[in-house]
């Protein structure tokens, strides 16, 4: 009987420990849109549509431009932008990413636009994040009804569509609602990481290294 009670107590302890661990997920709302949201779970960003779940089991039930309603461990919570639930608070360094200058003098990095993987070239002389129309089509970005502006490029002045990208990420540095230009054709071949992104992060260059760091 004592052995049975010991095993029962051990099983209950394991169950309680498991439940406690399940509740340690730290969830922060990093971006809000109609029908979708960017949830950061334990420091990792996920772009979710309503009804979708993260690998940690956090489900986005509803999203508007003002709040996200999530389900976590059977509990429903309503969060505003940059509001956090779960986990214990500990001050941490802002997200950052380090890039290395290439032989041609440029800095390149893989990253994500609307949670789709892309390749960026840092261009401090570019007013905006800029991509060509073929890349925009591949990423599913609607732009044909967007307003147009005249932009100066290495190939001369041209017209560009001005859109708002839901999210742009380089490494762990993620921004939402980033303005971008889309140019008809195949120029630029690589997406330019321009100042609509760079002006919103802290950028430092030392010798052949560049560091981009979130401001908060």
From TrEMBL:
CDD domains associated with the record: retropepsin_like_bacteria
Any one GO molecular-function label of the UniProt entry: aspartic-type endopeptidase activity
A single BP term in Gene Ontology: proteolysis
Signal peptide: 1-22
Superkingdom of the organism of origin: Bacteria
SUPFAM superfamilies, sorted: Acid proteases (SSF50630)
InterPro entries membership: Aspartic_peptidase_AS, Clan_AA_Asp_peptidase_C, Peptidase_aspartic_dom_sf, Retropepsin-like_bacterial
Keywords, alphabetical: Hydrolase, Protease, Signal
Protein name: Aspartyl protease family protein
Lineage: Bacteria, Pseudomonadati, Pseudomonadota, Gammaproteobacteria, Cellvibrionales
